[in-house]
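Dataset card, provenance and construction

Sequences and ligand SMILES were collected as paired inputs. For each pair, a complete structure of the chain with the small molecule in place was predicted and serialized as structure tokens. The example below shows a pair involving flavin-adenine dinucleotide. Curators did not alter the output after generation; any descriptive sentences attached to a record were derived from the structure itself.
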Amino acid sequence: MYLIIGNGISGINTAEVIREKDKETPILIITEEGFPYYSRPQIIEFLAGNIKEEDLPFYSESWYRENKIKVLYGEKAIKINGEKKILDTNKENYKFDKLLIATGAIPFKPPLDNINVDGIFTLRNLNDAKDIISFIKNKERVIILGCGLLGLEIGRALSQRGLKVIGLEFFPRLIPRQLDEDGARILKRKIEERFNFEFYLGVRVQKIISYNGRFEGIELEDGRKIYGDLLMVSAGIIPNIDLAKNSGISVNKGIIVNEYMETNIEDIYSCGDCVEFKGKIYGIIPASLDQSYVAGKNIIGEKVKYQGTIPSNTLKVTGIDLTSIGEIDPPKSEEFEVIIKKDEEKGFYRKLVLKENIIVGAILLGDKRKYVNKIQNLIKSKKIIEEREELIYEE
Ligand SMILES: Cc1cc2nc3c(=O)[nH]c(=O)nc-3n(C[C@H](O)[C@H](O)[C@H](O)COP(=O)(O)OP(=O)(O)OC[C@H]3O[C@@H](n4cnc5c(N)ncnc54)[C@H](O)[C@@H]3O)c2cc1C
């Protein structure tokens, strides 16, 4: 039996990859969540009120039946005995032939006093979204700690619910990991024009202000106080490694895997947000898809190697098209060639980064989808680019 812990995109996609070739070996997925697989970006739309709970499940019940994939909901894996090949959960124990740990990640919360009082939230799953929705009734102001992609998307969703959004960011620009200075400035203007957002950039939260166990506001390091009804913390993720740690599996910040997605224990694999590959934790869907493909293939005995993933992120905010891929802010050196086209008034910014005539990174803000796809394909295929002008001005 193939046993998969975690029913996120990494777990379910590994099951799908296994089933492409192996139609018979039983697959059992165990998940702590009480809900069939859904794509996490969809919970932003749920939070915004754009879709209903019943629209969330990605696969129909018959899909699971036809593919002979059994899922046990609301069950937590506690410990794996790698030698005897037994998994203990909070309810049962299971014998397996091969096991995949796809336990994902949990949101990081900065270690501030009062970080757990009422009115402070993170968003990772459907239950979190439901808690936020019931809390925001009759509320007016949300403070968002962390203006990365997720923080901005949460802000957009809550702005659609009628809240004023105050975004706080430690770095002096928005989406610091996927945007450079110019891109971030143009994006900030676009967001402020379209939504009820106000930003404080380059700030550090020093204190949470609370009264009677309820959130009231924050105090910045420079002494400024900002008040709000709730605080959304969107400050990164921590790989969920507890199960691996409990079971003698090598971990660092994430579960350590080799290029076959194998852990240090035979027949135990891992992939997705919980893993660390060559010192890197990706935390994005494209990496989960690549890694689960490799895990699935190796589980059924095909030797496939993982080569790493070129990070690719798209901001899903209506009216703002932003995609950031690969190396977007290279060190100033002759190795890299940077081509920029921008129109601040129109909110357009296109940056292509080349190395040895191959595009290795891009920021595409306000570009047409067709062009974005083209650049994505060029990066993936590592095609040698001859004609710069043609590339940059094509519409
Ligand atoms: C709101 C939101 C929007 C996002 N948008 C994007 C986006 O637009 N683009 C992008 O690339 N990425 C996005 N991400 C990140 C992306 O969702 C993750 O990279 C992806 O979900 C990782 O998948 P995973 O299967 O590895 O982990 P998860 O999706 O976290 O799944 C892990 C599952 O394992 C379960 N589990 C954990 N421990 C146990 C245990 N001990 N026993 C049983 N079950 C357990 C958890 O309950 C969970 O269901 C977003 C994330 C969020 C939260």
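Derived descriptions for this record:
The first strand starts at residue 2 and ends at 5.
The radius of gyration is 22 Å.
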